[in-house]
Structure formats: C-alpha cells, structure tokens
Amino acid sequence: MAYSIDLRIKVIEAHEGNQINSQNELSEIFGISLSTLKRWLRRKKAGDDLSPKIEGKGRPAKIDERGLTTISLLVAKDPDITLRELSEAYYKKHQVQVSSSILFRALKHLNITQKKISINASEQSEDEVKKKEENI
User: pLDDT tens-digit profile of 37-89?
Assistant: First the structure.
C-alpha cells in the first residue's frame, strides 16, 4: 500500500525544517525506509509531484467480464467439460487462446468447481446398467 500524501509532506517538511538531523533518525521516526525517504527527497528536489505513482499490475487479463460469462454458460451447458475442451470452446467463441491455468483461475473466480463424474458413476446412468440392476 502506498504512503499517503500527507505523510510524505510531513516527512519532507521535517527534513527541510532541520527538526531532525539525520535521515536515518527521520526514517525511523516516521516508520519508513531510508531508501523511501531518499526517493521522496530526490523527487522534491527535482520538482516532481510527491503523490504515489499509479502503476498497472501486470499484463491485462485475457478473460474479461464477457469471457467470464461465456465460461459460466459453457460449464452450465456441460458440467463435465474438461479444461482443454473449455479452452477450445473459448477460442471458437472469442478467438483468444487461453491456457488451462488461466481457465482454472477464471473458474475459481466464478466459484465453479470442476468435479468430474467418475467412470463408474457415469456408467450408472447407462441403460444397460439400469436393466442389470432391475434384474437382480
């Protein structure tokens, strides 16, 4: 979390007012690192703004809100869809290649668990198995 502009100004004013002699002591009093203090002083000397810089957090997401809706609909349509199949379906719809790890995170964001029906459980729904059970 970035330090507030008020704190930055107080630190610079304390330094410029010679209220505290050493930069080490000043950084300890205000609970900031020495390198942070020096960076703020450099910015002040250069006439730059002291407000926190707004920086992006990595590359933009491949799956936007519209993509999340698509994933939700695809999983609702076929709850047993694999990540590979989901990736292929997503590509057909949006022409964006997404990896299984990206899809996994999207599913987690949507609170969708990927529980697969086991082979034995899926066979229980077949007609032949039902007939055998009725005969027993």
Answer: 999 999 999 988 888 877 767 788 889 999 999 999 999 999 888 899 999 99
Q: What gap in Å lies between CA 19 and CA 25, rounded to an integer?
A: 11
Residue 92 CB neighbours (<10 A): 8
Domain map (residue ranges) of the chain = 5-46, 65-114
Q: List own/partner pairs for 11-18 with CB under 8 A and 24 or more apart.
A: 11/37, 11/40, 12/40, 12/41, 12/44, 12/50, 15/41
